[in-house]
Design a protein that fits this description.
787 residues; 7% strand; 50% helix; globular
């Protein structure tokens, strides 16, 4: 910015990964200086990639600034940069980046590729810590969400056919469970290490779903620090992100402030006065890792930052090691040059709260893992049978070995994404059996982008209908739809990343689903032009998959909200808005009245449909059920009586259902029916559930209770029976041991795992899903809620 200010008559072309970063930088400039610079032209790398030669020649820059220039090596982005530099070979060019290495792209050095290795100023994160420019952070490793991995290990141990090995591994598993049982819970660890009790903390989450689930745990995790934490969230799919972010920055309350985010604060965005970060998203990229912990590090900061790593529990800490290595390298360099005075901090230490558990986990995992040669033989066999290794990541061999996952891991090892031993000899062996080193998701992305670009060049955008297929049969519409869902969930294993999102943005990608009005109104117009009305059957679906009948039905019910203008457009085609909430009933009453006029009776068969497709028979049956349960108003009863409508008394309905239940009992010897099951056309499952509810509320007579009990009725639901069995086992354990400090691998006489059951109760309690009465009963036998 200073360069642009000092050369007001020069054109400065500023390349940036995203408009969001540009917007933030301009806001910073205005806040600091109050100035706005008019001689800067901002262009994203993706936009540059799509520019024609003529468009590039119109730029005529006097200076070129490449912000985050390591991104210039991204797929296809480099083409746009190359075109620009070749068009202006003498233009002075400056690159800005926290790191010039593309760790996940073969360790490419973009400073060497773009600037012949000319680096004007460089300082690693480790060196900044050594020199005291950044205060040394307190780095705490603990664990979160290890249950799935533990359960996977337990299944592997139990499945072992070698009895001696199985016994040995059970002992290791028991030792691991005991170690985990002794480990402190997240709430205790946070309380132990957080010094700034009213500070601001950023929590990096594994996707949008992670934001939602982790926010629910805020009060539980931070309960020992603040019973009322201030919670905010930002992610690229959240319309209120900017407002939430500003509110977080402005919050100076006497409460702890928590900002849950996905990716948006990794790069180019800085927040003042951050007391710490909490890493809940697993990443092996040192670049992303440093960007995340960098949110808590500032040259102006006077208090020690704290970093909680909750996701590297049982992984090799390659990212942590990269910072430690930088610290060691800087210390050794200064000492070798006799510049010891520059050394303020000589180490980067890690407080490992779960070291013993991690080591036990790794030992057990190594014992159970399949050897490289074994995987290779399985891959070779697949190749000999199929002529390729094109399997999905989820593919397993007939005996259950995850071959697809192993092949994907080998690809990641070769690209430097994860640690592993892949020698030239192993690479050659895999090459010989047709190994494709591109990731499956990369191959899928290449196909998608090629088809999207082709569509864009022809139509000027990629607003593609769901059922659209390219001329070669590629289902572009459905793939783009899947991408929207993937981005909404922020799936770490999907084909999307930030660079690819930007590439699609430049093609006019629409990430939000089109509103129901935009999708359905054109279909309504077409139906009206063909039929002259909007009397659309409820199950009517257009040729391109739009469920118009269901949409109009929801409009009538008021579950689809329309503006006044939209209502007028529908009314012009004969649509009439209900004047009261119950008018839909009167519409259907007029249909059964018409049936009565034509047939002389109102005994509509249950499968009967009107000419418009409405299921009048189902509606008539519902009236009888509502009448039997006292839900039908006297006015409606009188109107139906005028049509000689045949009613069933509540007792008749009950007796019919009971007769069906008795027949089922006589055939099967029980009444174990799923709650949604229909038997001989009768919804018997829901009826049985209803009887349990009526008995619980005291509304079921003693005679009916007795008759149902005689045919095997179990008055507790399956969930209740399972819970009571778990509680019974817990009581027995408490009686024998006088505590509920149960190892996760502890097995009861009935074969159930009590430790796992208790752990599920804790999770339900933390998430607010445990019935208070159940929690009270567990409290009575010494339940420990925080482990």
């Amino acid at each position: 910015f200073k360069l642009a200010e000092e050369h007001p008559n020069d054109r400065v072309l500023w390349l940036s990964p995203s408009e969001y970063i540009v917007k933030t930088q301009l806001e910073n400039l205005k806040r600091e200086s109050g100035d706005e610079l008019n001689n800067i032209t901002f262009v994203t790398y993706v936009r540059l990639m799509l520019m024609t030669e003529a468009e590039i020649l119109k730029l005529k820059p006097d200076w070129i600034i490449m912000d985050e220039f390591h991104r210039c090596g991204a797929e296809r982005w480099s083409d746009g940069v190359a075109n620009l530099l070749s068009a202006y070979p003498g233009c002075p060019t400056l690159g800005l980046s926290a790191t010039n290495i593309r760790y996940l792209d073969g360790q490419r050095d973009m400073a060497a590729e773009l600037f012949d290795g000319n680096v004007a100023s460089e300082m690693t994160l480790g060196e900044a810590i050594v020199r005291g420019i950044l205060l040394k952070p307190k780095y705490v490793v603990t664990m979160y969400g290890y249950e799935d991995e533990l359960e996977s290990l337990r299944k592997k141990v139990s499945a072992s056919k070698n009895e001696e090995l199985r016994i040995s591994n059970h002992a290791k598993l028991d030792a691991l469970c005991k170690s985990l049982a002794k480990a402190d819970g997240i709430d205790i660890v946070l309380n132990r290490h957080i010094v700034d009790r009213t500070g601001k903390y950023i929590i990096f989450c594994p996707g949008v779903e992670g934001v939602v689930s982790l926010k629910k745990l805020a009060k539980q995790w931070f309960r020992l620090i603040d019973t009322d934490p201030r919670v905010y969230s930002v992610h690229s799919y959240f319309d209120e992100s900017v407002k939430e972010f500003e509110a977080f920055k402005a919050d100076n309350s006497e409460h702890i402030k928590l900002l849950y985010c996905v990716d948006m604060l990794n790069e180019g965005i800085h927040v003042d006065n951050i007391s710490g970060v909490i890493l809940c998203r697993l990443t092996v990229s040192p670049t992303v890792y440093k960007q995340q912990i960098g949110r808590a590090l500032s040259a102006s900061k006077t208090n020690e930052a704290v970093i909680f790593d909750l996701v590297n529990n049982f992984r090799n800490l390659c990212s942590v090691s990269s910072v430690s290595s930088e610290v060691r390298d800087a210390v050794n360099r200064y000492r070798s040059l006799g510049m010891d005075a520059y050394i303020v901090n000589d180490s980067f230490t890690v407080v490992d709260e779960v070291r013993d558990s991690a080591e036990l986990f790794e030992v057990l995992e190594d014992t159970l893992s399949v050897s490289w040669d074994k995987y290779y033989e399985l891959a070779k066999r697949y190749y000999e049978e199929n002529g390729n290794l094109n399997v999905s990541v989820s593919f397993k061999t007939p005996d259950g070995v995850a071959l697809g996952r192993w092949l994907e891991m080998e690809r990641l090892v070769r690209r430097g994404f994860v640690a592993g031993l892949l020698t030239p000899e192993r690479i050659a062996r895999l090459d010989a059996i047709g190994m494709r080193w591109e990731r499956v998701t990369d191959l899928r992305w290449d196909a998608l982008y090629a088809h999207a670009l082709e569509y864009y060049n022809e139509h000027g955008g990629i607003d593609v209908k769901l059922n659209y297929q390219s001329p070669d049969g590629y289902r572009l519409g459905s793939v783009l739809c899947d991408l929207r869902k993937s981005r909404k969930k922020q799936s770490a294993r999907g084909m999307l990343n930030e660079e690819r999102v930007s590439m699609l943005d430049e093609l006019g990608m629409r990430w939000e689903n089109r509103g129901s009005w935009e999708r359905c109104f054109p279909a309504a117009e077409k139906y009206f032009s063909e039929h002259g009305d909007l009397r659309v059957p409820n199950d009517y679906e257009t040729d391109d998959g739009i469920k118009l009948g269901g949409w109009l039905c929801r409009v009538r019910r008021g579950t689809v909200k329309l503006t006044d203008g939209q209502k007028r457009k529908l009314e012009s085609m004969g649509y009439r808005e209900p004047v009261c909430q119950g008018e839909e009933w009167y519409v259907h009453y007029s249909e059964i009245k018409e049936f009565y006029r034509e047939n002389g009776h109102s005994s509509v068969k249950v499968l009967y449909r009107t000419k418009s497709g409405f299921r009048l028979g189902v509606w008539a049956r519902q009236q009888r059920m509502d009448y039997a349960e006292g839900k039908l108003s006297s006015e409606k009863v009188e109107l139906l009586n005028e049509l000689e409508f045949k009613w069933d008394s509540p007792d008749n309905v009950w007796e019919r259902q009971f007769a069906e239940a008795r027949r089922y009992y006589e055939e099967h010897g029980n009444l174990k029916i799923n709650v949604t099951d229909r038997v001989n056309g009768v919804l018997l499952g829901p009826w049985i559930k209803k009887q349990r509810e009526l008995r619980k509320s005291g509304e079921l007579s003693e005679s009916k209770i007795r008759r149902l009990s005689e045919i095997g009725m179990e008055w507790q639901s399956l969930d209740e029976r399972r819970w009571e069995k778990g509680f019974e086992n817990a009581c027995k354990y408490y009686k024998d041991h006088r505590n509920l400090d149960v190892p996760l691998a502890y097995k009861c006489d009935d074969g159930s795992y009590l430790g796992n059951w208790l752990n599920n109760q804790r999770k339900n309690w933390m998430n607010g899903r445990l019935d208070p009465e159940r929690a009270k009963r567990l409290d009575s036998i010494g339940m420990v809620w925080s482990k």
